[in-house]
Amino acid sequence: MIPEISIYEILTVTSILFFIGVYGFITRKNLISILISVELILNASVINFVVINKYLYPDMLQGVVFSLFIIAVAAAETALAVSIIIGLYRQISSVEVKDVETMKH
Amino acid sequence: MDFSNFLLMRHEIILLAITLLLIVAEVFIPQNKKPSIVHLAILLFGIHTIIGFLPATDGNLFGGMFRTNGLIHLFKNVLNVGVLILLLQSADWLQEKIVRQNKGTEFFILLFSSLLGMYFMISSGDFLMFYLGLELSTLPVAALAAYETANRKSSEAGVKLILSSALASGVSLFGISMLYATSGSIYFNDIIQMITSTDLTILGMILFFAGLAFKISLVPFHFWTADVYEGAPISIASFLSVISKGAAVFILMILLFTVLKPLMHVWENIIYVVAVLTMFIGNLFALRQQNMKRFLAFSSIAQAGFILLGLIAGSQLGTATVVYFVLIYVFSNLAAFGVVQAISLQTGKENINDYEGLYRTNPNLSLVMMLALFSLAGIPPVAGFFGKFFLFTAAASQGYYVLVFLAVVNVTISLYYYLLVVRAMFLRKSDNPIPFFKNKIYMRLGLLITVLGILVLGLYSPLYDYIYELSGIFN
Known about the structure:
By secondary structure, chain A is mainly α.
């Protein structure tokens, strides 16, 4: 816990982080950048869990344990996404969304 | 120490054992005997399905993280039957395409891992278990969607699925963190007692709902569906549209009816809007599809909209009708996907135009397809009619007459495009129709079970009474 900083400031930061992630997911044109945006969203929730645990419910460790699991699963998710993207890169030599997309409505 | 408590998670333990056994088999079966692994996997999973029907007890494990009861047990059996049919239908494709590339065992391992994740997801007792189950059920499917590595569309489907499901689980987690902030616990039982209708809780619930709506492909979150279904192998498309969607609907229903029940005045409005949007957009986009897989993708979006009619009731009747509808939907949609798969495997054709004159050359296949489409559309003698009828009854019992009217309008629209396919098969003539072919034994068995399901489930009414009785647990 940081003395001069209340929970409101930290939750504001995580909310901003979350929406930067969503904005990046929608606007980015590169698959790797989209993946990084998703990581921002996941990390925003990790910080949320830790902070809420520490400031509001310090007697139980549920939030901290949850955040550890999120970090592990996010790593697995990223590894799988990168491997699929590499598989695609071998075929079209590009990770830009406009080159990837062939199927449309 | 007494280990008999672990029998509560019998489904999970047996499936895990099968998965490990297949890994060992992959090592010890010599290269020239590799095709036999398909038979082994289907046999083992068949035994697992049969064992699943043995009676089970209710209870909790691991301090309430894992729970099971009659309805959850029944739903696991529904998923089992669905996966067994799917394995039977895709056995020929596996033998001819995948085992040749020496990737046969991994297919089963990934598929069973995903099913294991769904088991844990639907019997989760806290949000941590729920999240782990959700991820375990999603990640292997993304790998499977990109499984035909030589096919560019398959990789594209994999990328789209993994990125959108990662976003969905991120949004969902942010919502869960807000629910945790207001209630101080991640256990469902604690949250039920603490939850009140504050702004933060409502925001958390909406974000959480959005994350699950991605998996069910409800309308504002449906953009990945058609592309992934078209690019992925057909058996994975049907897995996504039947098994994965069914499991997500089930856990969403349990959470809405128990944990989030105090917020019902909020979520019933959300579901109202989303249901109308989902039905209309799913049906209207399905009208203009030429590819059979995209057609079935939009039809499955529209079906998800109908399922929401049962969710909005929020009662024992709602639970029973949703489970009953999902059960029928498993059989109907698997029959449709099975026929598409059989034809695609033999001829490589996937467009609706290619089906013209199919009745003259392959009468049995076109009859199966016709039954499946009639069941999806809800034409009286087959099971789909009863599923839809009960869903509408559930919504009407809570006074949502306008919503039921809009749903009936949508049934009419859907009847039009389902009959377009039937017309192409039965009435149109074609210069070069799909030639006659004979399916192998597994595919015939898979289609036969679905046809029996479609015909019998609608007429055998004790089943519905049984589901209704079990549904009382969650209300």
